[in-house]
């Protein structure tokens, strides 16, 4: 009978572990965006937790009502959590369709702030470009008016008697000409940056929609799932079936534990436990050597006095 019980518990644990390994793998893949090895790790962690929880039930020998109630509550909670995760994965296409209906509202919440930010950057670039173009125009006008500048060189010569000063004049190009090329490069870079910002502004709405579709939130999909359950009877029936199925699987070990009768292994274990308690009780009644020695000394003292 003990071997049959072990096989029954093993079969129930295999069913539960496979189910939660599936849940852990898909949850890590969909919501945590993990790679395949991360998904496998999530499945292993989930199986480890389930085994530890079920061991608390299988290895327990007490009949405490509070403990049994806690196990039932734990099984119900795990069934609900598992159902929520599985349903959101199984009904992912329906959830995505439902989310598309509310996509405009989400875009309206995100889009204005980003448009305002990009518009502010574009306006700042326009002001900078206008400033640089104005600076370039002033320099260009000055160069047009004064293409050359006169430079006077003064050379002083001395001899033993007199000192003479020779002043020569030469024309050089206006030095501001060298400022035009760096200004042109700066203006060109600013215009390229402005074109990028304007392109981002034009494609902002599709980018926001793609970002919202890419980031899948568990709570967001849970809210959509709740709306679907409250509005669709078929969705509620499908969800209820999964809840009942997972609840039965979660309570399978617990019910097996409650309905088990005492077998030969349990009797042998109880007998060994009783023998162990009896041995402790007998050892507690045996007087210690110090105590017996004191009793002998007191007896001898009484005999001498008599």
Specify the biggest β-sheet.
2 strands, antiparallel
Distance between the termini: 68 Å
Radius of gyration: 44 Å
Shape type? elongated
Average pLDDT across residues? 76
- Return the structural class: mainly alpha
Within the largest sheet, what's the order of strands? 1-2
Helix and strand string, N-terminal first? HHHHHEEHHHHHHH
| Model regions low in confidence, pLDDT < 50 over at least 5 residues | none
Roughly what percent helix? over 70%
Keywords:
2 strands; elongated; 12 helices; single chain; two-stranded antiparallel ribbon; 306 residues; mainly alpha
Please describe what this structure looks like.
The protein starts with a helix and ends with a helix. It has a two-stranded antiparallel ribbon. The model has no long low-confidence stretch (mean pLDDT 76). The longest helix has 43 residues, at 103-145. Among the domains are: 2-90 and 232-264; 103-146 and 178-214. The protein has helices at residues 2-30, 36-58, 65-90, 92-101, 103-145, 180-202, 204-214, 218-231, 233-250, 252-259, 264-285, 289-305, and strands spanning 148-158, 163-173. Strand 1 (148-158) and strand 2 (163-173) form a beta hairpin. With 306 residues, it is mostly helical.
What's the SSE blueprint?
Layout: H1 2-30, H2 36-58, H3 65-90, H4 92-101, H5 103-145, E1 148-158, E2 163-173, H6 180-202, H7 204-214, H8 218-231, H9 233-250, H10 252-259, H11 264-285, H12 289-305
Antiparallel strand pairs: 1-2
Task: Put the structure in a nutshell.
By secondary structure, the protein is mainly α. The protein has helices spanning 2-30, 36-58, 65-90, 92-101, 103-145, 180-202, 204-214, 218-231, 233-250, 252-259, 264-285, 289-305, and strands at 148-158, 163-173. Helix 1 runs antiparallel to helix 2 and helix 5 runs antiparallel to helix 6.
